[in-house]
């Protein structure tokens, strides 16, 4: 029985693969977790090999399995019909476990090494293992579809899920990022008034963004990636023309490094999600425009 096994990681792609050789699963927005069951004693490891058994003791206890096994999966919190990373962080910060769910998606060891077995056989062995031992919530088996991944991805995007993971049915498990696992992420787009910025020597280090809600202009977070040095300099020149002595947000926020501006310019932004606090997550700048109606 080995110790912690470095996880296999997926390669980002813009389109899902087609063909019967691919399995497609929902991409869960949570913490990657590896559970080791060793003769009735269970340990839980993070993707970096940290022992988080105490934090996930409910999940560890639910996997009552005889013999030795190593299960790969993701711990999530389901909020409003989809997995929410910010809700998961809030649960862990509060030391709660009652909303945690563990989606098990791979079996690396079962009284012997399974990593060289094909993906589809490892998944079947996992399904059998959970079923034979009557494993129930908070542990769930991660279902998959075979075939047209793009169709599944489009469906996932409409439901505001994070995306899908596509896995080659015949491939072994390898502790590295490779193209036997592919991730296709849903991206949201929006136009947000720029309410401030952080200076850097030749341009901007980050933009503070707002959003009109009725008569209120509320803060929705910042964006700090997506521009070259040349573009950064151009953004700075434009924003320098609308500098304001104070924030135009309805509810002021403390940002000591901010230079506030009139909300005359709008940032085109791609982002992954909006957190429970109403802030953009994993945002990336795509362009700046002026005089777009609020």
For this structure, the CATH topology of the largest domain is D-amino Acid Aminotransferase, Chain A, domain 1
Helix content: 10-25%
Q: Could you say which overall geometry the principal axes of the C-alpha atoms support?
A: elongated
Radius of gyration: 23 Å
Secondary-structure-derived class: alpha+beta
Oligomeric state, counting identical vs distinct chains: single chain
Identify the CATH class of the largest domain. Alpha Beta
**How many strands appear in the DSSP assignment?**
19
Order of helices and strands: EEEEHEEHEHEEHEEEEEHEEEEE
The assigned CATH architecture of the largest domain is 2-Layer Sandwich
CATH-level-4 superfamily name of the largest domain: DNA ligase/mRNA capping enzyme
């Amino acid at each position: 029985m080995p110790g912690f096994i470095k996880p296999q990681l997926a390669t980002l792609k813009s389109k899902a693969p087609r063909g019967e050789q691919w399995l497609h699963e929902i991409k869960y927005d949570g913490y990657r977790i590896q559970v080791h069951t060793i003769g009735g004693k269970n340990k839980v490891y993070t993707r970096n090999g940290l022992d988080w058994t105490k934090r996930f003791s409910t999940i560890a206890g639910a996997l009552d399995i005889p013999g030795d096994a190593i299960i790969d999966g993701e711990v999530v919190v389901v909020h409003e019909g989809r997995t929410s990373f910010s809700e998961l962080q809030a649960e862990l910060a509060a030391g709660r476990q009652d909303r945690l769910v563990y989606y098990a998606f791979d079996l690396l060891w079962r009284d012997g090494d399974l990593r060289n077995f094909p993906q589809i056989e490892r998944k079947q062995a996992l399904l059998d293992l959970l079923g034979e031992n009557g494993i129930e919530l908070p542990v769930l088996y991660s279902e998959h579809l075979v075939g047209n991944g793009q169709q599944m991805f489009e469906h996932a995007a409409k439901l505001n899920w994070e995306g899908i993971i596509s896995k080659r049915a015949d491939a072994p498990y390898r502790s590295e990022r490779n193209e036997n696992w592919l991730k296709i992420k849903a991206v949201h787009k929006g136009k947000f008034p720029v309410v401030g910025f952080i200076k850097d020597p030749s341009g901007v280090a980050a933009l503070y963004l707002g959003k009109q809600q009725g008569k209120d202009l509320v803060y929705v977070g910042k964006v700090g990636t997506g521009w070259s040095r040349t573009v950064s300099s151009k953004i700075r020149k434009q924003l320098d023309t609308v500098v304001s002595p104070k924030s135009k947000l309805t509810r002021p926020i403390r940002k000591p490094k901010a230079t506030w501006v009139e909300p005359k310019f709008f940032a085109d932004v791609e982002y992954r999600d909006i957190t429970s606090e109403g802030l953009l997550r994993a945002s990336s700048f795509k362009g700046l425009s002026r005089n777009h109606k609020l």
